[in-house]
Every structure is written in C-alpha cells, then in structure tokens.
Specification:
Low-confidence stretches: none
Strand content: under 5%
Order of helices and strands: HHHHHHHHH
Number of strands: 0
Number of helices: 9
Structural class: mainly alpha
Amino acid sequence: MSEILLNGGPSPQLAPWVLGLALVLAATSAITDYRTGHIPNWITIPPLFLGPILHGLVDGAEAALASLVAMVICGAVPVLMFWRQGMHGGDTKLFLAIAALCGTSVGLESQLLTFIVGAIYAMGRLAWEGKLFATLGRTFYLGLNPILPKAWRKAPSPELMQKLRLGGAIFAGLFLVVIGRYQNMLFPGLA
C-alpha cells in the first residue's frame, strides 16, 4: 500500500489522459491569469474531485487514496503560503488540482520547477526595471531581521511584498516535468 501512496505518478493506463488534462488546465489557467490576474474556480475545483474518482475507477481504492494523499503532500507548502498571504488562492488550487490528477511526484516536481521559473522571471523583471540589486540588498537585510536587535530591524518595503502571478510558471513547470518524465511515451523512438 505504501508503494502506491508514495509512488506518486499516474498509472500507465491513465498517464496520457491525466497529464494531458493537467496541461490543458494549466495552459488555460496561465492564459486567464495573464489576462485577468485571476484563475477561476471552474478550472481548479472539478479536478480536485475528478482526480480521486478517476484514479479509483481505473486503478482501485488505493489509487483514489493515493490521489488524496498527493493533494495533502503537494498542498502543504502552497496552502501555508496562501495562509501567510504569499500566494494567490487560484495558484494554490491549481497546485492541488495537478496533484489530484498527476500524483505526488509529478505534483512536487512541477512545484519545484514552477518556483524556479517564477524566480527567474521575477529577477528578470526586476533587472529590466533596474531594481534587481537594490531589491536583492533589501531582501538580504530582511532575511537578517529576525536575528538583528529590535532597534535595527526594518519593516519590509511594499516592493518586497508583491505577489507574483504564477499561472504561466505553473504551466511551464508542469510542461517541463511531463516532457522530462514521459518523453519516451510522448516521442517513441527518439530516446
């Protein structure tokens, strides 16, 4: 049972379908996030139910449970970030939807790559605006805040506390995971 819960990826029968659906959902989310700054619930809520049901129907109760466990494991950091007002709710629900459909390992890998893509984008945007080095300096000082004496501490500037739209980065992270993990399935004979 623990193998199924921690294996994390979809079964070979479901992999093309759930990965394709997750990519379509992430692409749609990226477009709506870019246009409106919002990822609607009609994109993110249905996969939260569809994932466990689909896995359960095709691979049994353990696979349905694995999908639920994937949502808990992959949702821990995004939900905490949302709770601490560091991430938008639509981004959080999209991470949960990807975990429900694709499993723990794909969900965690796509999160890691999402945060890397998002960081690269944010630093590129700051560099373009000419604010990169000043922001990095303030970020370093903010990181020291907890160990500094109270008299030396500074409140974070609003510039450091801006939220980043992650819809495009989530799509890019998931796309990279799917291409990296499933290249033999997607492009037979190339590898």
